[in-house]
Amino acid sequence: MLPLVTRAVGSPQGTPRQASESIAGVVLSYARCSTSEQGRSGFGLDAQHDAVDAWAAVSGRTVEHHSEDGASGLLAPDARPVLAALLNRLADGDNPADTLAVSRLDRLGRSALDVLSLLDRAERERWHVVMLDVAVDTTTPVGLMVATVMAAMARMERDMTAQRTRDALARKAATGARLGRPVSDATRAAAARAEALAAEGLSQHAIADKLTAEQWPRATPAAGPWTARAVGLALHSLHLDRAAEQAAVAHRSGGTTSAPDA
What CATH code is assigned to 5-143? Predict the structure, then answer.
């Protein structure tokens, strides 16, 4: 059962950020504090809900308070019971709630990917997200634009990180370093047998049956009998071994060779 406080908020003094008057569903105010955060920051659960109340007051929207005490922001949203339950409610089109609001972005997550995924989910399921400290408010055109820019920047950073990883692997492979997971001598021997069977024209399914019947070991005893996928991975490991050997020879002689796919 979720901890719940429902409050219809009237207009207070001051001019908090304007909520769209065309959105009338219930606002789910989510507050989170880890054990150490609450005492250190002075921004406890009540203060977080008060900030959402001030935002919602302009349009008189109904706010429900839901709190998660002692929950780390490093956990994915679906791994936090209270937040996961709220997300399920928002996904239900027949539920009157249509907005998830937090006082600060890091209440939803400390991972940019988690927050981006949540924004994508909200767009797919047609509900709204409000993060007051970064001016994200998808109930308004300007707030939606901010969320879109944030999502684009996060995607760009993710793509740049992936490119840097690929470049680093290519430089590493060019020196003769073997990419991919290391394999045991026993697995390498089984892979060589699989390659010989493939040269005879056997399919990977047939090779798997043959390796199992001949009792060739898998990487771990608990892995069970050979499968077609395991055969494919074993053959790929041989490719990585040979590519690394070729790159090492080329590197020593001052030449170059193409980097293998990991």
Answer: 3.40.50.1390
pLDDT of amino acid 85? 94
Dihedral angle, C-alpha 42, 43, 47, 52, nearest 10 °: 160
Sequence spans of domains, the chain: 5-143, 185-252
Helix 228-252 with 185-199: angle, nearest 10 deg:
100
Those residues with Cβ within 8 angstroms of residue 50's Cβ, 6 or more apart along the chain or in another chain: none
* Amino acid (1-letter code) at residue 177: A
- The residue type found at 161 is T
Alpha helices in 214-227 (DSSP H): none
* In the predicted structure, residue 60 carries a pLDDT above the cut 80: yes
Give Cα separations from 64 to 6, 7, 53, 192 (angstroms): 4, 6, 9, 63
Question: 155-168 pLDDT, tens per residue?
Answer: 677 678 778 877 77
Cα separations in angstroms, 79 against 26, 72, 185, 240: 24, 10, 40, 37
Residue positions annotated with a catalytic role: 34
Radius of gyration of the chain from its Cα atoms, rounded to whole angstroms:
27
Compute the distance between CA of residue 241 and CA of residue 237 in angstroms, rounded to an integer.
6
Q: Are 193 and 234 in contact (CB under 8 A)?
A: no
From the list 62, 27, 246, the residue with the least C-alpha distance to 132 is 27
Three-class DSSP category at 244: helix
Q: CA 126 to CA 118: how far, in whole Å?
A: 12
Q: Taking CA 210 as the corner, what is the angle to CA 206 and CA 216, rounded to the nearest 5 degrees?
A: 135
Determine the straight-line distance between the first and last CA of the chain, rounded to whole angstroms: 47
Distance CA 83, CA 20 (A): 24
